[in-house]
Amino acid sequence: MGIQKGYIFDMKRFAVHDGPGIRTTAFFQGCPLNCPWCHNPESRAVPGKEKRLNGTEEITVPELTSRLERDRIFYEESGGGVTFSGGEPLSQPHFLDALLSACRERGLHTALDTCGHAPPGGALPLLRRADLVLFDIKILSSRRHLQVCGTDNTRITANLEGLLDSGNRLWLRFPLIPGYTDSEDNINGLEDLVRRNAHGIERISILPFHPAAEHKYRRLDKTNPMQGVPLLAENQAAALKNRLDAIHPAVHIGG
Length: 255
Fold this sequence. Notes:
The protein is an alpha/beta fold and 255 residues long.
């Protein structure tokens, strides 16, 4: 078996919103969803294609691990580590598997930021091997999830349930997006999910919408689906936090 290679489109050092402590985040190329509010639209291309258009870099596991180790002193002093994000890390399972192994051998704390959409048979072992999983829950209705994100949420739900059963550290993240995830039905579904599984969720992060990707769509010469969508009302995230505070002890606004 040769040296495992994969595709990333960015790296972010000294990240403080992608898990505990100071972290380095590697952004994997490829994503199975098509969320209108995506902050990284350049990640959607299939790995290995359109590299010149979107800046994707082919990199080996040793090369990436070497970069991740550069800031070990900051990880150790802050309780941080490395985070694999995207795109969707589970879209490159063999590359992710090799990276998780390499990080574990070197004593680097790993966090996996995922939408959860991948075949459970292959995804669950990877989710369970990460030290911490940052699991995005967007839309609770499978039919509505299909309409908005391009796939239903069957795999997402199965992977979340399997992860909750495993006892892994889990932070649940909920993007609060006007017109998409902020409906009363969706919020009620989120409350039900948290109420049933509060014991298995270490932290809940509410992620309010902001138009951070506008410049990326311009660079890609693509229309931004969220162009013209108003920002959330000033108290909307706080109101959701108050509702979730009643059923969970660790609810935060922001990553």
